[in-house]
Amino acid sequence: MKKFKIAVALAGTGMMVGPALAQDDVTPAPLAGVWSLGETASCEAGPAWVFFADGYYAEVQLPDGAPAAVGIWRDESDAIAYTHAHMPFAGHERPMRVRHLTIEERSSERLVTRNYRGVARIFHRCPATSLKAPEGQSVH
Description:
- By secondary structure, the chain is mainly β.
- It has one helix at about 1-10, and strands spanning about 35, 45-50, 55-60, 70-75, 80, 85, 100-105, 110-115, 120-125.
- The N and C termini lie far apart (about 65 Å).
C-alpha cells in the first residue's frame, strides 16, 4: 500500500514511475523543410513540397517556381494527413477533404509514402537554400 501511495504522489507531480509509464523513445524524423519529389533527389530543379513547421505546405517547382498547390498538413507518425488545393483554387468555397500519405519508410533524408490511391510518393530532403525567390521579387 505504501508503494502505491508513493507512485500516486509522484504521478501527480508529472514524474514518470516505472516502465509502464515510459514513453517510446523513438522520435520520428521531423518533416518541416524542403522535400524534392521523385525517385531520385532533385534539389536543383523539379517538383518539391515545402512543409512549414506551422502546419502549412506548398507544392513548388524548384528552384524558384510559384506554388502550384497549397494545403495544411499534420504529422501522424505513420502517415501525413493533408489537404491539397491546386491553382487556381477552384472549389475554394468548400472545405477541403483530408487525405493521407501512408509512411512506409522514414528517415531524416528520405520518405517513402503511398497516397490515398495507392501510388508511391518518394520525397528527398533538400537544403533550405534549394528554394530561391523568383527573379524580381522584392525582399520581405
